[in-house]
């Protein structure tokens, strides 16, 4: 995995703000699943020029939770470019809609578990 470090103070401040103001879906996934796993996840992690919702450095996994706005242009195109950039860095990007998380929480958790290989 390529580990290009770009220190961007504005992104770091934005990430801190996003952690404090997490969506209800982000809180649900974090408190009911991710923070109790045997591998470490971080929330709102700055990776290069992006802030990702959840990141597991040990497994190279990025998890993104998408609200409705992510399915409209230009946000959808920006997500595709972001996913390609992160994949080029060697990361696996897992995307789940907020709707999917709420309707099938156990299935989302199982899919994440399967990708972690633990």
Provide the descriptors you would attach to this structure in a database record.
globular; 4-stranded mixed sheet; 118 residues; 5 helices; alpha+beta; Endonuclease, Chain A; single chain
Task: Summarize this structure briefly.
Helix content is 45%, strand content 21%.
* Residues in helix, %: 40-55%
The radius of gyration computed from the alpha-carbon positions, rounded to a whole number of angstroms, is 14 Å
Q: In the CATH scheme, what's the topology name? A: Endonuclease, Chain A
| Biggest sheet details | 4 strands, mixed
CATH class, named Alpha Beta
Task: Report the CATH superfamily.
Answer: VSR Endonuclease
Shape assignment: globular
Written description of the protein model:
It is built from five helices and four strands; from the N terminus they run H-H-E-E-E-H-E-H-H. By secondary structure, the chain is of the alpha+beta class. It has one domain (23-116): Endonuclease, Chain A (3-Layer(aba) Sandwich). It has a four-stranded mixed β-sheet with strand order 1-2-3-4, with helices on both faces. A hairpin with a 4-residue loop joins strand 2 and strand 3 (61-66). The chain is globular. The relative contact order is 0.17.
């Amino acid at each position: 995995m390529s580990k290009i470090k770009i220190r961007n103070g504005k992104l770091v401040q934005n990430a801190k703000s996003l952690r404090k103001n997490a969506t209800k879906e982000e809180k649900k996934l974090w408190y009911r699943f991710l923070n109790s796993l045997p591998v470490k996840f971080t929330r709102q992690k700055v990776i290069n020029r992006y802030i990702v919702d959840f990141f597991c450095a040990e497994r190279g996994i990025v998890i993104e939770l998408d609200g409705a706005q992510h399915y409209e242009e230009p946000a959808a195109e920006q997500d595709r470019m972001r996913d390609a950039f992160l994949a080029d860095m060697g990361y696996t990007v897992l995307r789940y809609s907020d709707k999917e998380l709420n309707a099938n929480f156990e299935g989302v958790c199982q899919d994440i578990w399967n990708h972690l290989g633990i």
